[in-house]
Amino acid sequence: MQTGLAGTATGETPDQVGTTESGAAQRPGSNAGRAEAARANWRTLLAGASPREVLARLLAGDPLGLRARVAVALADHGYVFDPDRVLLRVAARVARFSSRYRGQPELDAWLRGNIDEALLELVEDDREGADQGAASSLAVLAQPLGLSAQTLHRATIALHARTLAERRAFRRLVLEVGELDLVARELGMSATEAARAARRALEAVLAVAEEVQP
Amino acid sequence: MKIRPESARLARELEQARAEHVLRFTLLCVGCAAPRLLRAEAELALLHRRELARLLSEAALLRLGGADAEGICGEAWQLALGDELASAATDGAQYSEALRSALERCSGASAELWPPAAGLALAGCVLHDTDRTRLRLARAWQAQGEFGLVLALAQEALGRESFGSSRERWLALVAQLEGNGEAPSVQEASAPAEGADSDDRSCVGA
Lengths: 214, 206
Description:
The structure holds two protein chains of two kinds. By secondary structure, chain A is an all-alpha fold. Chain A contains eleven helices and no strands. In chain A, helix 9 (about 165-175) crosses helix 11. Chain A is globular. The two termini of chain A are about 30 Å apart. Residues about 1-30 of chain A have low confidence and may be disordered. Chain B is mainly alpha-helical. Chain B has helices spanning about 5-65, 75-90, 95-105, 115-125, 130-145, 145-160, 165-180, 185-190, 195-205. Chain B is built from nine helices and no strands. The termini of chain B are far apart. The interface of A and B includes residues 51, 59, 88 and 161 of A.
């Protein structure tokens, strides 16, 4: 199971997604190549069919490169979700609203908007306990950490309630063990601020974990 | 070239194994893909339900009118309802007769002719139970003078673990009820909640 921790669910770096750089775009199997093809053929994929039919098209080989786009968005927002859970939600959303898409805004921007909306929905669902199966999607990640899936799920809810800066700092410094100065530059803050932001998020996560598993 | 019997047998076995392999691989792919597609379709169904719930709970605010309806464009709402119903229909969504009738009454008619706001809000809540739909239901009940029901909803919401800003909204609502002298005691608040709740549900049939 991909955990979405590294933002590289397909093994490609985020900046390769949706790029039009000739080298990447010419590789038919690459995400960038797929994204380029999708931009040219979005009508074939999204138009003239029911949402269910579009959904089946989107899941057959991921022609829009949604998996890689989801990985990028997860990293940008500092969220920790099972990427497959996000991917299915995003695919359903894109399929549902495909009939409204007329080529504007650009496909990349439109897809990103749908991914961001889907992520917000998932955060809200988790906060309100609307998705009963949400915790089980984290079972594979929870086991090696010595946590129950439920505890990890609650910890992610606590994390997702933190500010964007805290989530991103936590993700890059704690989960991905990034180098402090480098991460601080990436996040546009001082090293002290980045470390403090990560610590605040970590404390929130640990508070939940300790509360459930003393 | 003449093929020796041994080679022919091996060739046959190889062909048979290859065919079996292809079959196994196909079954494996189908086996992997089918549950995933089903999960994705469940997400799609959830999306339809969520969208309809949002529309119903916005309909409740439009039905209340005044400040509650500010920020919701009636025309855009009608278009969104039409789009959602058409899209859900192509995906084979089924609604109860009462909900279909309520939606038909909302479609194209002026808001005064719609079902009561509390009924619409409750239908939205039943379809997708979130703090947002509950807050709108509370607002509709408040407008209807059902302060006990509002307080019961607020107490339930405040009793739950909450990470978001909705806790503040519930507290503000309770403070508003208290400020207006509309908040009865806890006993009074919880007593009529169940009966009135089922009445509204049967009224909308969601």
